[in-house]
Amino acid sequence: MDIGKEVNKVHLYKNLELLAEQVVEGFISGLHKSPFHGFSSEFAEHKIYNSGESTKHIDWKVFAKTDRLYTKQYEEETNLRCHLIIDNSSSMHYPEVKTMDVSHLNKIGFSVLAAAALMNLLKRQRDAVGLSVFSDHYEYYAPEKGSERHHKMLLNNLEEVLQSESQGKETRPYTYLHQIAEKIHRRSMIFLFTDMFQTETDQKELFDALRHLKYNKHEVVLFHVMDKEKELHFDFDEVPKRFIDVETGAHIDLYAKNFKEVYEKEVSKYFKEIALKCAQYKIKYIEADIAKDLNKILTTYLIEKQKFSR
Length: 310
Prior knowledge:
The protein is α/β, with parallel strands linked by helices. It has a single domain (about 80-310), classed as 3-Layer(aba) Sandwich (Rossmann fold), CATH 3.40.50. It contains ten helices and ten strands. It has helices at about 5-10, 15-30, 60-65, 105-125, 150-160, 175-185, 205-215, 230, 255-280, 295-310; strands spanning about 45-50, 70, 80-85, 130-135, 140-145, 190-195, 220-225, 240-245, 250-255, 285-290. A hairpin with a 6-residue loop joins strand 8 and strand 9 (about 250-255). Helix 2 packs across helix 4 (about 105-125) and helix 4 packs antiparallel against helix 5. The longest helix is centred in the C-terminal third of the chain and has 25 residues, at about 255-280. It comes from Zhouia amylolytica. Pfam families: DUF58.
């Protein structure tokens, strides 16, 4: 993530809007150096004033600070609608992090910050955004709107998600995904943040719900949020540990190194099955490692928006 070290030390809770802004600014700056540099023009908010142009849109505040004339850029209104869905079940609160900042995130912290950054981009382009949060119940729903008041309301709710109870919340995501699908009537981009862990193992029910989200020609992107080091590669200290299911309370004691190889093989197989199912149902599948993939979320948004707008 191309954001300064000083930002990393800012706590996520109560500073979500600031950090989302910093993440987006760093991302946009990085676009100039990346294969996606062409997209950066979408976010140009000022341009150098040329002699003979109307002075109507000169930003005098910027002039006072820089002694240079810039005019404000106004992007055309668009009709893009985006709905963000966040899985807030107990497994999403792994690993335990006492004080979250950009360098220290658990899965829910990563998802909330990524959602806030996406909201920042959507706001810049005057697009409408909605939000749903579910765990063992449908916690929150807000329809797609583009107002400043709506934006603030969603940010406040995301901060509440960070502070929500993290233990004992089982999830049956298919139940709430069906309900969310029924609420989104106009064609939208739908971004789902989930670790794909569920109390029940019926994958058919889950993918039926994901297919329901595709109804009305919505574009669906599944961000598979994971702590790749621990949840895929099973990298733990070579000492006996107790592994506890945070949703059911079930536990097992073992040496991680004795099971690392077989564990990694089985989990890799499961993740590959998810990716293949998503491809079958034309759902965009993105692995999102909480240690490094914030920019991947924003890049995916840019690419999918280009496709969606065609």
